[in-house]
């Protein structure tokens, strides 16, 4: 397992994410367990693993152990709750967020965008704001898009068992989804992605959920409810949400464009 070697800074945002250098020579964005935001780390973990399986553009991530002796050296870290594991996402340097780029001429990995939108609907990610995508210069006239910050999948960073059973099934208001929709070239992409989500092995979902560290306070009942919510949503709800999104968001954008 990689080990932290230097603290760089605390990043802006409610997660109090910290930028640390590790002994593989790379920088990672590390999130600690936070009271009041109890489900943040579990959400990040589950979303990361599923997004990876789906081939979505999410920075590499892993569970790390920041030794308490390391955290104790920096006031910003020593004040954080010390659980055994933290969530670390590889820092993608020299990029912009969706607010910093006023004009996007093209997205080089646009074949991923329908997958990102469906993933957000499947996971009930209500936080796909412009700050939660990053855009990196790729060719002189296009950006590569990455997705970050899955602290608020399952509708919140501190969901309860009951919340999981009653996740919203409505269209998400997201300017970022609109931007992404603009760059999707073929409506067919949505159904292709739906098929991939619907055929993802249930054992994989169960395994990912089982690997949520013990001290992140997700009970076994809650773990079961995560699996159930994902299975029910992909089977009964996702297709309807996809069709609604295409009708209300995707088509109007593309009809305007013609
Ligand atoms: N893998 C990454 N590569 C580059 N920058 C990142 C990465 N992860 C996070 N960041 C930066 O750190 C900021 C905070 O991270 P993140 O959005 O995950 O946490 P947050 O505190 O929950 O955010 P918010 O409160 O805005 O929802 C991001 O807005 C982004 O600027
Ligand atoms: Mg964020």
Number of strands: 8
Largest sheet: 5 strands, antiparallel
The helix/strand class is alpha+beta
Query: In CATH terms, what is the fold-level topology of the largest domain?
Result: Phosphatidylinositol 3-kinase Catalytic Subunit, Chain A, Domain 5
Please tell me the overall pLDDT.
97
Oligomer: single chain
Query: What is the name of the CATH class of the largest domain?
Result: Mainly Alpha
Secondary-structure element pattern, one letter each:
EEEHEHHEEHEEHHHHH
Number of helices: 9
Present as ligands are:
adenosine-5'-triphosphate, magnesium ion
The helical percent reads: 40-55%
Q: Unreliable runs, pLDDT <50, ≥5 residues?
A: none
Q: Kindly report how far apart the N and C termini lie.
A: 52 Å
CATH architecture of the largest domain: Orthogonal Bundle
Biggest sheet strand order reads: 1-2-3-5-4
Coarse shape: globular
Amount of beta strand: 15-25%
Task: Compute the CA-based radius of gyration.
Answer: 18 Å
Count of spatially separate domains: 2
Describe the protein in words.
The strands form 2 sheets. A 5-stranded antiparallel β-sheet has the order 1-2-3-5-4, with helices on one face. A 3-stranded antiparallel β-sheet has the order 6-7-8, with no helix packed on it. The chain has 258 residues and is of the alpha+beta class. It is globular, with a radius of gyration of 18 Å. It has 9 helices and 8 strands. The mean pLDDT is 97. The relative contact order is 0.15. The chain has 2 domains: 87 residues, 2-Layer Sandwich (Phosphorylase Kinase, domain 1), CATH 3.30.200; 162 residues, Orthogonal Bundle (Phosphatidylinositol 3-kinase Catalytic Subunit, Chain A, Domain 5), CATH 1.10.1070. The structure holds adenosine-5'-triphosphate (ATP) and magnesium ion (MG). Adenosine-5'-triphosphate binds next to strand 5. Magnesium ion (MG) binds next to loops.
């Amino acid at each position: 397992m990689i080990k932290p070697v230097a603290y760089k800074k605390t990043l802006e945002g409610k997660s109090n994410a910290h930028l640390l250098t590790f002994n593989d020579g790379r920088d990672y964005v590390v999130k600690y367990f936070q009271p009041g935001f109890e489900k943040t780390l579990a959400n990040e973990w589950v979303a990361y693993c599923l997004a990876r399986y789906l081939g979505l553009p999410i920075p590499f991530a892993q569970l790390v152990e920041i030794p308490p002796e390391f955290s104790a050296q920096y006031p910003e870290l020593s004040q954080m709750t010390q659980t055994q594991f933290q969530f670390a996402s590889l820092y993608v340097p020299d990029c912009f967020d969706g607010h910093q780029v006023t004009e996007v001429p093209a997205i080089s990995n646009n074949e991923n965008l329908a997958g990102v939108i469906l993933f957000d609907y499947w996971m009930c990610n209500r936080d796909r704001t412009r700050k939660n995508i990053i855009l990196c210069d790729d060719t002189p006239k296009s950006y590569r898009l990455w997705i970050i910050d899955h602290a608020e999948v399952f509708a919140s960073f501190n969901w309860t068992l009951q919340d999981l059973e009653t996740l919203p099934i409505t269209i998400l208001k997201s300017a970022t989804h609109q931007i992404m929709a603009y760059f999707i070239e073929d409506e067919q992409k949505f159904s292709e992605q739906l098929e991939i989500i619907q055929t993802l092995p249930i054992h994989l979902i169960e395994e990912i959920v089982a690997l949520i560290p013990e001290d992140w306070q997700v009970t076994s009942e809650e773990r079961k409810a995560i699996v159930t919510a994902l299975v029910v949503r992909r089977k009964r709800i996702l297709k309807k949400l996809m069709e609604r999104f295409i009708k209300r968001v995707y088509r109007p954008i593309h009809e305007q464009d013609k």
